[in-house]
Amino acid sequence: MSMSLAIVDPALIEDLVDANHILFHLGVVDGFGHVSARHPEDPGRFFISRSMAPGLVTQSDIMMIDLDGQPLSDSAPTPYLERFIHSEIYRARPDVVAIVHSHSAAVIPFSVVPGATLMPISHMSGFIGDGAPVFEIRNAAGPNSDMLVRNRELGAALATSLGRHNIVLMRGHGSTVVGFNVRQAVYRAVYAELNARQQSEALRLGTPTYLTPGEAVESARANDGQQDRAWNLWKRAVTQKGLA
Amino acid sequence: MSMSLAIVDPALIEDLVDANHILFHLGVVDGFGHVSARHPEDPGRFFISRSMAPGLVTQSDIMMIDLDGQPLSDSAPTPYLERFIHSEIYRARPDVVAIVHSHSAAVIPFSVVPGATLMPISHMSGFIGDGAPVFEIRNAAGPNSDMLVRNRELGAALATSLGRHNIVLMRGHGSTVVGFNVRQAVYRAVYAELNARQQSEALRLGTPTYLTPGEAVESARANDGQQDRAWNLWKRAVTQKGLA
Amino acid sequence: MSMSLAIVDPALIEDLVDANHILFHLGVVDGFGHVSARHPEDPGRFFISRSMAPGLVTQSDIMMIDLDGQPLSDSAPTPYLERFIHSEIYRARPDVVAIVHSHSAAVIPFSVVPGATLMPISHMSGFIGDGAPVFEIRNAAGPNSDMLVRNRELGAALATSLGRHNIVLMRGHGSTVVGFNVRQAVYRAVYAELNARQQSEALRLGTPTYLTPGEAVESARANDGQQDRAWNLWKRAVTQKGLA
Amino acid sequence: MSMSLAIVDPALIEDLVDANHILFHLGVVDGFGHVSARHPEDPGRFFISRSMAPGLVTQSDIMMIDLDGQPLSDSAPTPYLERFIHSEIYRARPDVVAIVHSHSAAVIPFSVVPGATLMPISHMSGFIGDGAPVFEIRNAAGPNSDMLVRNRELGAALATSLGRHNIVLMRGHGSTVVGFNVRQAVYRAVYAELNARQQSEALRLGTPTYLTPGEAVESARANDGQQDRAWNLWKRAVTQKGLA
Q1: DSSP letter assigned to residue A125
Q2: How far is the alpha carbon of A132 from chain B, nearest alpha carbon, in Å?
Q3: pTM over 0.95
Q4: Which of B78, B244, C10, C45 is a Cys-bridge partner for B239, taking CB atoms 3.0 to 4.6 Å apart?
């Protein structure tokens, strides 16, 4: 951890490192995917690992990047190609404090089938609200891109698709979820994946009854108050594994 | 474990703590869900963990609650919001000695699809009987609730849906199973989840032949006599993991 | 291990104990299921664990039972209720030297859906031949049994359903596979489960091309020569887990 | 490791051994399957384990084989029956430096259902290109073979099915992927399996939008530059497991 990070609340950096390990432990990310947290005192900066597998991240791998996607040091290590997912969402959404981007397995099918909308199937995923929007990168990058959100323009287009939602799917790629803190963003990434699996199963049984918009809002609020119950469990798991 | 718990049969408290760990180990509960046991000498009270992840519960986290859902101590820790699931079922069902509430993954699809009834697909789940009823919380809490069984009225409505069954599904939420002891309730929670997975698969192959009501009753009775075979295995697993 | 077992080839008893652990390690059995081996010198007897979870079996739990299902000692521990699966198949099939009975998860759906026949989808499961027969216990035990093969008559009816096949499914219950040694029976139990999972998936994609009878015979023969490749791997896994 | 191997770049042999362990760790291979690497200085030879489970391979198990499938030593251990998969692809494809053959579970259904083509569903599997061809061994070996690529003729027929693709499915058997180095071949084997699982799910939701040929090429190129991110993670996992 560089000197400039050392003056930030150490608990935030610890949560960010734990988030990397927890998302790996739970299978939300594999060698790819990333999680970031906005700087608590400077909304124009955010913390994120250098380009590496989340499961291997330590405090010394955390770097600072500004909202143009530029590392805040001349000697910065290689950043993620897709850091613009983070920088442009932080720019467009002042309320967002943490972001998780992943390729979690069960979400991807919902990103590629027109008309198959990820909907909240249980109270654990009320944050999905009235359904997750899908970002079609072809609309912004043309039909032959490498699918990566590798510049400001594509990041801004993704942020537009996200709109006021808590989650946006990315066609043939994965999803991005936002939160008011690291723990909430992790919670949402975990339960988005679980919701996708369950919704997929339910759709084969018949026509599911999803949460009403009111149920979604109220259950999401109730769960926000219970976040640490899951976090404490996950924290122990990665500590026992020697990841924390 | 408080002094008032110390005078209870220590084997019961040990089973209750083990039940928390086993349900987590087997993936029936994650950071959420809970298990309780009725007081062996006072049917108006039950034991349950304070509000925390089941996988982290120790004996010192077990508290006593009465059938109004009130903790039996002024200095009691924070109880589960949904303790009324337990208190009202214990009130309505004098035969019930233990209860597991979970959000186990494969059961939820059956809770949200009208007409998709959880049925006993093998002799391991004869306890499902003639099919699991579904509790629709909207009928009791209206269309915009937070989905939680957070008061006596909702607990009583759930108990009514349960009726004389061993399991009740809760729409967009999970399930609650009951037993004549902790081990039986755990067994039922585990095999309800497995049954859901298998029934789901079978439904895609064609029209399954379920157990007849007679087969369900007889196989459930036979399995009750074999409960400890599974319990001993699960107990070793959580002991080896350092959870017990 | 009793004195009478000590005179048998120790390698056979070791394989039988390992088989219990391997089947548990690979998820073919859970707290239930059993595996047996015929006595190498007395075809009228077989070795099997006393009634307990396979994952917990040690050499001292192995007992001898005759083809009437009677333990060969007055002080024998409690045998499995369903030992008649083994005794009657050994009686009917002199070529069979080892038997595995399990409730493996993906096989059960094929047991309950009329017309859904377990067929060999890949060269690893050529032993399934022209499709697994299904034993409907109602035909022998009536419509209200406890589903268990708990006596000689039911065991004999199961053996009749098995016929000359290597595997028989049991409606709403599981399967039984046979082999010319313990390792082959274990291999078949493992790959029957995997085949069921893959066939289930393939059926959703369209109409699968199964192995021809000739391909089934030839690939099964080729795999028989490679059995120890898998066994050595599984043996290490259970040894490392501390099960062996 | 024999003397003749000792003079080769030790990093290559280390990667090859790690590849065996990683493919096992990730469930791409079980007791069966194999991985090879072409000799860096002699394109007419390749390195591969002797016939054994990949999860158990050590450096001393690596042997050299020529493009006729002949071990390069009179005292060579038993080679894999299907080494002709490797020798004939190396002969037909001078650009290929590494090969993985596996029976990975989700790929097999795509190999047996006519018309179900494995297509790239996300940017992680752009290497699948315009869809994986399927090798029907019956066309080369007749209707009653043992399904194994056990001689040069069958290896050559497989290589013809592979053509210029990076992956070829083998009906009722598995798949073979190629790469310009060991790490790329492992990456492709891992993500081919994941792609199959996700495509299978997507097909049940409706009609998936696959990568365009341009997106496939570009995303594959982008991922090639990120290969070590996954490799480093996998390497740690097998090291921690004591496999490396």
Answers
A1: G
A2: 18
A3: yes
A4: B244
